[in-house]
Amino acid sequence: MKKLFFILLVGLMLGGCSTNTAGILASSTGDLKIDSPAFAQKVKVDQLKMRGQGGSLEGVSTVISKISTDQHLQYKFTWYDGTGFTVDDETRGWQPLTLHGKESKQVSSVAPGINALWFEFYVREAHSN
């Protein structure tokens, strides 16, 4: 009996440690990848745009809530050069984003250098540790 209890306890602890970080990835080149269909039922990524901004590019994305309750999310822009290598990805971490029911917000990022030509935008649910 004690052995069964221990196995169940370990299983619950390991299950509690696994966090689903899947979300939605959209690219300024037009690609869209949905890692979590359940998340895509609650959030939509729309209107990815780029424009020149003071000698660099600025990327913009609109994140839309499809549900009527608050959502705590994280997003990240990753910039790439013409050969597909990331440009200064080390300095750009996940940013918090709260969407209230049915709200849409526009988020943006300025490219970290003049050799950045396109970006990927990723959004996921924020999980507290």
From TrEMBL:
Highest taxon, organism lineage: Bacteria
Keyword Amino-acid biosynthesis: no
InterPro entries: DUF1425, YcfL-like_sf
Signal sequence, renumbered to the chain: 1-22
Nucleus keyword on record: no
Classification via CDD domains: DUF1425 (cd09030)
Keywords recorded for this protein, A-Z: Signal
Name the UniProt record assigns to this protein: YcfL family protein
